[in-house]
Amino acid sequence: MARKPRIIGPQLYHHIYAWGNDHHPIFKNKSNHEMYLNLLPMYASQNQIDVIAYALMGSHVHLFVFDAAGKLSNFMNNLHGSYAQYFNTTLKRVGHVFGERFNSKVVQFNNYGVWLSRYIHRQPIEAGLVKDPRRFSWTSYRAYLGLEKKDFLQTEIILSQFGLGKIALLRYEDFVLGKQDDQVKWDTNTISVIGDNTFVEHFNTVSTGIVKRLVDKPIGEDLIKITANHFKCKLEILMNPIGREERKLRHRAFDYLVNEHGLSARHVSRLFNVTPKAVVKSIRCTARTT
After folding, report:
1. Which of 6, 88, 247, 271 is deepest in the core (most CB within 10 A)?
2. Is the pTM of this model over 0.85?
């Protein structure tokens, strides 16, 4: 049976997971985990990948990433190719380390991305390894709570949806430890797109054409033009506002892209060359005045 084409292209969020060959362990000791976490930010940087969350389990790995430039396959081939070479050399073994090509699902951001981060951070709980995920060292959860520093992680993409400062950390902890049922069956292999009906239908209708369309023309350029048309203004005003009224209009554009198109604050910040905190602040100001 032919493999189902992978949905790739710039400006997409992905849930990635990969298992060891025959579900054999791919992490056998502390040094193995540390090597993977050394390789992860190196290849992420080289391929313009943002790492949002991760979980390194005994026989498999979960990653939540944002692929800015459509280099997901290259990133994963670099990462797992280098790790497999290290693993085999260190343990004096031969053969495949990972059992198959990595699995990936395109994920609609905002609500679905938040639930994906929870699913990833609850992996050691669901595996029966710990009751408190803070006691498991090999997920990004401790970094989310400020208990350790991982400079390569883009935690603000998720935490900005829970507020600011320590309040956001406490709310996120409550969210992860809560008893509520997840909205998505993340381990269902037959699903390749996670999102609301409109989001899923978009990818279903364009099918494999999404790969070529997104590679040929980054979606970021389209979104800026769509936003300018929506507010009936020149593109230059949104990109380089002059004066209070034009800045207020750009703030409304930030709010429009986050709430109507499902972009993260970091994604918007990249489109307009501002900081994610500036985007979050402007959206809160806009909400108070509407």
Report:
1. 271
2. no
Model confidence pLDDT, tens digit, residues 131-159 = 999 999 999 999 999 999 999 999 988 99
DSSP letters, the chain, are -PPPPP---SSEEEEEEEEBGGG--S--SHHHHHHHHHHHHHHHHHTTEEEEEEEE-SSEEEEEEEESSS-HHHHHHHHHHHHHHHHHHHHT--S-SBSSSPEEEEE-STHHHHHHHHHHHTHHHHTTS-SSGGG-TTBSHHHHTTSS--TTB-THHHHGGG-SHHHHHHHHHHHHHS-PPPSS-TT-TT--EES-HHHHHHHHHHTTHHHHHHHHS-HHHHHHHHHHHHTT--HHHHHS--HHHHHHHHHHHHHHHHHHH---HHHHHHHHT--HHHHHHHHHHHHHH-
